[in-house]
Amino acid sequence: MSSDTALSADRYRLPRDREREIPSVDQRTSGRLVVESYVVAPEEGFELHHHDQDQLAWMRRGAMELSVGGQRWHLRGEHAAWIPAGAPHAMLFREHGDLISVYTDPGMLRDDPAEGARLLDIDRLAAGVLDHLATGDRRSRRWRLCAALLDDVVRDARSSRQVIALPVDPRARAVADALLADPADPRDLAEWASSLGVSTKTIARAFVADTGCTFREWRVRARLQVAVGLLLTGESVQGTALAVGYDAASSFIAAFRERFGLTPAAYAAHTRGG
Q1: Do the Cβ atoms of 168 and 65 come closer than 8 Å?
Q2: How far apart are CA 153 and CA 223, in angstroms?
Q3: Cα separation, 216 vs 234, whole angstroms
Q4: What percent of the chain is modeled with pLDDT above 90?
Q5: Which sign, positive or negative, has the C-alpha torsion 146, 148, 151, 152?
């Protein structure tokens, strides 16, 4: 593994020069496969860098903001990012959580590195394989079987269009960051624009241009994305609904089912394996 691939101390940076002990990396290496996992905290991250290997990055727990090229996304455990070798990228962690990264020879898990970074749906099988690769004994037969299965899992994973894209425009980005921090904030687009001293049309155009969604659509997605994190930490459906800005649990359940195909309670139980 090259020094560029290692998530070492010289690659690790904390915003605003905060001093904090860098978490140790739990690494498992076998043949051409390197698996690293570690605990992350809010507002920690990795500055812009690249690797000589392809990388599959998955938040087993928590959420991160991933920047690749001119695109930015907000990711949780239902999706993973495949980042081809040489692609500059940066990560900012939004919550306490666990990041699992798998590094492979270029083209080992995806056929066409030229296609750029891809966001992949992670089902229970994929999650189980990645979890075992990060925690199991790499000398065991089961670990080797999971390493072999990873190839099929990644190649068969669907490219996701459901991940929340983040605005690049700094004014729209300020609105997005505020809503991810407090999704229950009731201000409409006109009020946000007024607080920033710009026109409503300016913010509206920025959301559509940078995320492919109107402000209203984006806010619904953001609320439901934050809701997933709350549900998986054990928050009740009613409590989650109120925390992300829904006055009635029934409205929240309907919106959640429309986006994820399951009720909030069923989704949490399914994801936790209950």
Answers
A1: no
A2: 29
A3: 27
A4: 43
A5: negative
The three-state secondary structure class of 67 is strand
Asked if residue 40 has pLDDT above 60, the reply is: yes
How many helices (H) does the chain have, and how many strands (E)? Answer: 9, 12
How far, in Å, CA of 33 to CA of 100, rounded?
A: 13
pTM of this prediction? 0.73
- pLDDT of residue 200 exceeding 60: yes
CB neighbour class for 70 (10 Å; exposed up to 12, middle 13-18, buried from 19)? exposed
Tens digit of pLDDT for each residue in 70-124?
788 999 888 899 999 889 999 999 888 899 999 988 876 655 555 678 888 888 8
pLDDT (0 to 100) of residue 77: 87
| Distance, CA of 93 to CA of 150 (rounded, Å) | 25
Give φ, ψ of 114 to 5 degrees: -70, -15
Sign of CA dihedral 137, 139, 141, 146: positive
HSE toward the beta carbon, residue 155, CA cutoff 13 A: 11
* CA–CA separation, 104 and 109 (whole Å): 7
Relative orientation angle of helices 215-232 and 264-272, to the nearest 10 degrees: 50
**Which pLDDT belongs to residue 114?**
52
Cα gap 199→193, rounded to integer Å: 6
> Which candidate, 104, 153, 173, 127, places its Cα nearest to that of 272?
127
Cα separation, 201 vs 171, whole angstroms: 12
User: At a CB cut-off of 8 Å and minimum separation 6, what does 210 contact?
Assistant: 165, 166, 167, 168, 169, 172
Residue 216 has pLDDT above 60, yes or no: yes
- End-to-end Cα, the chain, rounded Å: 37
Strand segments (E) across 166-255: none
Tokens matching residue 236:
């009740």
